[in-house]
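Hi Y.,

Following your request, here is the sequence exactly as I used it, all 847 residues.
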Amino acid sequence: MPMKTLFKSHDAADAGVARSVSLPVLDCGSSKAPMMGRTRIARWRAGVLTLVNMLMIAHLIQWAIMGMTVSPIEPSESMETLEVGVVNAGAVFFIVAILSTLIFGRFFCGWLCHIVALQDLCAWMMTKVGIRPKAFRSRFLVYFPILLGGYMFVWPTFKRQVLSPLLENAGMDWPNWLRPVEPIQVWSNGLIVDDFWATMPPWYIAVPFLFICGFACVYFLGAKGFCTYGCPYAAFFKPIDKLAPVRIHVNDDCKQCGYCTSVCTSNVRVSEEVRDFGMVVDPGCMKTLDCISACPNDALSLGFGRPALGAKPKASAKESRKAALKKRRGRYDLSLWEESLAAVLILWFFYATRGMLDAVPMLLAGGLAAISTLIVMMAIKLLYQQHVRLYKIQFKAGGSIKPAGYALVLLGLVFVVGSAWSGNARILRWQGDLRYNAATIPTDMLLRPDFNPIGQQRVQAEEAVAAYQRADSPSHGGMGWELNAEHRLRLSYFLSVLDRNDEALAQLRQVISDGEPSEGLVLQAGQLLIRTMDEQRGETNDQEHELAKRDAMLSLYAQALEQHPNLHAIRTELAKSAYAVGDNDKANAYFEVDGYEDDPLFALSHAGYLSFSGKFDLARAQFEQAAELAEHIENAPGVLIDIGRTALQNGMADVAQQMAQRAVDHKHASAMTWVAAGEIASFSGQFDIGKERIERAKGMKGYSDQAMLQARAANAILNAQTIEEGRAMLRGAVEIADDPFEAFTIARGMVFAGANLGAPEMLDEGMTIIEEVAGSHPEFPVIAYDLADLLFQLGRTSDAYAWASQAAEADPINPVFAQRAGELSSVMGDEEQAQRWYEEATRRRGD
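Below is the corresponding structure, written out as C-alpha cells. Let me know if you'd prefer a different format.
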C-alpha cells in the first residue's frame, strides 16, 4: 500500500554501543549500535518533555500569583467529569489525546507525558552508569492497567447507564457494598478553578509519587515500566493505537541489524515487527522515533498506511514468526504458577496501598503495587531457585543466599507488613461503611430522648463503632491511621445510636477542629451538646440550666466560626444571639470583617441578621447584593432559593418572589429548584404560579425518584381545591420512600393536611399508611410510639394505648415508652394498669 513519509532520519554512526540482548549485527556500514535513547531525535524529544515540565511549573506559579487558573491538565481529572458532570481541562485534554492517538498513534505518551519524561531520565541515568534497564516481562500483569482504566473511566458510566436501570427495573436497592452513583442533573463548567491543588495529593505524597513512578518503576520493571504495569491511560491508548493509520514502516533497505530494537525505550522488538509485518504493530510503541533515527540504512520511516488491527505476518515470515513467538514465551520472567501468585499480589498491594493514610492516589498505588509484587516474587524465588539476580546485584548464587538477598527479604517483608497494616485499616473502615450504608435511622431521630435502638440496630452500631475505632490511629486507641472527617462523622452517628452522646460530641468537635465542617454539622453538634447537657444535668434550677446550655452552645459556635470564618450561617446565629441580649456592637462586629466582599453567602447571612434586627431597607440591599454575586457561582439557583426563603421568613414576600423567579430563570435550574420556587410562590400567596412551577418540576430529571421532593411538591400545591391531587402526589411519594421513617414523615404530612383542610379521607389514608409502616417495622418501636401520639391527638385513646404499649413491650429498656403507656392507661381510667406501667418505667430508669 502506498504511504506518505512523515519522518526519516538516522544518526547511528555517532552513537555509543550498549547491548544487553543478542541481536544479529550485519554489514550496515557501521558497527556501532546506539544505546537506548541515545539518538538525535531523542535530544529533541527530551527538549519537548523538558518544556512540558516547565509549563507545568509555570501553571502552578501562575495559580499561586493570580489565585485562579485553568484546572489541572491531567487525564485523571476526567473521573470528576464522568461522575458528577464537571467538564474540566483534564477531560478535554484526555479526549484530545485519545483522538490524536486514533490518528497518529501514541505520540502523546512518548512526547507529552511528564511521567514518561521522568522514566526516560531514569533510563538515561542508568545507562550512564552502565546499567541497561531490563524489561520485566509478564503474561498476566500487563492487564492490570486495563483493570485500572476500566475502574477509573468505564465503571462510573456503567453504574449510571447500565447497572442503575437494571436495579431499578428489578425493584432492587443498591447493595450496601456498592457506592451508588447519582444521575448527572446539570453539566457544569470546571475549566477555571480557584483551588488548583484541590484534587492533587499533598507534597509529601506527590514527591514520592514522582520518584516511584518515574524512577523506581524503571529500575525494577524496565524502561517505561510504569506505562506497562501501572498506567491506567494505557487501557485506552493501546487498543486505540491499533486503529491509527500513522505507523512506522520499513522498506527493502532493512538488513535486520537490530539497531532499532537496541535503542527502543518502549520495549518493542522493532526488528522482528518490521520483518514480519512490514511495520510496527505493537501497541506499546510510543512513537519516540528513536528507531527511525538510529537506522543506519534509512530503512524505517513514519507514514500513513493500513492500521495494525488485523495485520497478519507476511507469508515468508509465518514460520519465523511462530518460532519467535515460541521463543518469546520462554522469555517471561515468571512461570505460570508464579504469574498467578503475582496477579493476586498486585491486586492486594493495590487495594492495601490505595487510600493509605487517606492520601495515596490511585496512580501511586498502581506503581507501588507493581514494584511490591516484583520484589516479593524475587524474595520468594530465593526459596527454590539456585540463582536470583537483578542487574549486577546477586541475591542468590549457587544455592547460597548473599547479603543482598537478606536485604531483599527484609525489603519484601516491609512491603508485606506495610500492606497488611494498611489493608487491615482499609478493611475495618469498609466494614464500618457497610453498616453505615445499611443504616436507616435519621440523624434527627438520634437527638430524641425517647429513641433507643433495639436488636440488630444495636448490634450493627456496636460492630461499626468497634471497626472504626480499631481503624483509628494509635493515639485514639486504634491500629490504623487518623480517621478522616467523613469516617469520624460516621463514628459519631453510631455512637449517638448507642446513646453515647458525649463520645459522639467529642468526634464532632474533632471534625470541627481539624476538618472542613459544614454549617449543618456545627448546628448538629450544638443540638447534641444540648442533649448531652440535659442527660448530665446536676443540681441546678431550670433557669440556670437553660442559661448554661445557651452559653455552651454559643461557645461552640464561636469556636467553630473562629476556626472556619466561612461558616456564615453560624455567624448569623451568633449575631442574632448578641442582638437578643442587647449587645448590638458585638452583633454588628460579626459582619465587620474583610475578605468576603464577593461571597454571596456572606451577604445573605448579613441580610438575615439585618432583617432579624428590623433594618429592612438595609436587608433588601444585602439580599440584592447576594443575588448579584450568586449569579457568578456554580450553584447559583440554590443560593437564590436560599435568599428567597430567608426573605420570606423575615416577611419580605416580594423579595422572596423575585429571587424564586431568578432561580428558575437560571440555566442550571433543576427539579429541586423548581419545587423550591413553587413552595416560595405558594407560601407567599401566589398559588397559581406555585402550581405551574410544580408541574414544570414533575417533568424534569431527578424528580420521579425523590420521595421527599415529591412530598414537598404536594404540600406546595395543597389547598381546598387541590385535595385529591395533593393526596395522590403524597401517596406516590410514600410508595417510593427509601425507608420507614421517610414513609412515616410523608404520611404524617397527609394526616396534618387532612386535618387542616377538613379532608377526613386524606387524614384516614395517612393514618392507615402509618399503621402499616409501624406494623411492618417492629424493629423501630419509636414509630409505634409516634403513631400512639397521633392517635391520642385525634381522640382515639384506646388505639393510642394499644400502640404505646406495643412500643413499650418491643423496647424493654426504654422508660419513656413505659411512662407514656402508663399515662394513656390513666386517661382511659385504668389506674391499676397505669400503676404497673409507672413502676416499670421507674425500674427501667434505675431509680
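The mean pLDDT is 89.

Thanks again,
Q.
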